[in-house]
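Risk register update: the risk that structure generation would not scale has been downgraded. Supporting records follow, first protein first.
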Amino acid sequence: MKAMFLRHRSTGLLSALAICCVVGVVLPLAAGPINPAVFKDQFEAAAKNAEFVAKVRVVAVTCTATTGEGKSKSADLQLSLQILESQKGPAKKNDVVVVSHKVILPAGPGPGTYGYMAEVRKFPITPGVHGSVALRWDKDARCYTVIAGWVPEANNAAIPTEVGKTYVAGDPVKK
């Protein structure tokens, strides 16, 4: 009886282990895009400790560098942000602040675009889009650095992915 109990117990453990392995492999493949409300919560938490918080409009986006290939390709962007409403910090309405931000580029259809689609909702990076930003002044680099951001409604405008290219709000949609 004791041997039979051990055999059933070990079979149960193996079954549980097999289920965990299958679920661990299948769930990431079936995962969908992240809910944008998560970024709003992250922004609100970060804004409490930020030196500069504002609602902004992206006036221009310039690609300053690209790195990686395929799914790991990213672009370094320089963003010109027009202040629409300053909530904390030295800038006032209609001032322009320039920040640098690194973005994961889309790597094909479907799941290959999830990282980029999250980036578009996480920080205002596309020309003409409105969003909120939380920034901190970097004394050594003498510029603002990104802490967090949030975009309530993405505009699906393109961003430059070639070094030296600049897209401006109001430009025709690039393909």
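Supporting record for the second protein:
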Amino acid sequence: MAPALSRSSAIARHAAVAKQLLHELEQHAGTAIDAIGREDGSEFLAAVNERDRILAQLDQVVDALSRARPARGSSGEDPEITMLFKEMAAATAAALASHDQLTSFTRAERDRLAIAIRRTNTTDVVAHQYSAVANAGRPRTLSVTG
């Protein structure tokens, strides 16, 4: 098999795997977004951990792609390879958009929880006022006979 043909097929295989991984990354971002705000954070953590695993695999695929890609200035780009890289770039853009959305939702949830925690540390003025009024009519003496 000619080196150019074998290089093209290697790039095609790596590009297909990369696109699949990018699609999975996008799906797990959606799963994580859906899990934000639930009482049990295990589904969110599982989705984030799966994204980490996918990113590690994607890193290996990108490394393999960089080794398989012909050097610049060689006899010109193969149109098929160019198309594969364009498709991969589109999949990357979609995965980045879903990542940005996940980041936004996660920050919003973090901020919402921080406000809730701050509220629990402050005195509830209405409850405090109600407590003072409700306890005002009670006698303040202690009876030992009943």
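The mean pLDDT is 85. On this basis the risk owner (M.S.) recommends closing the item.
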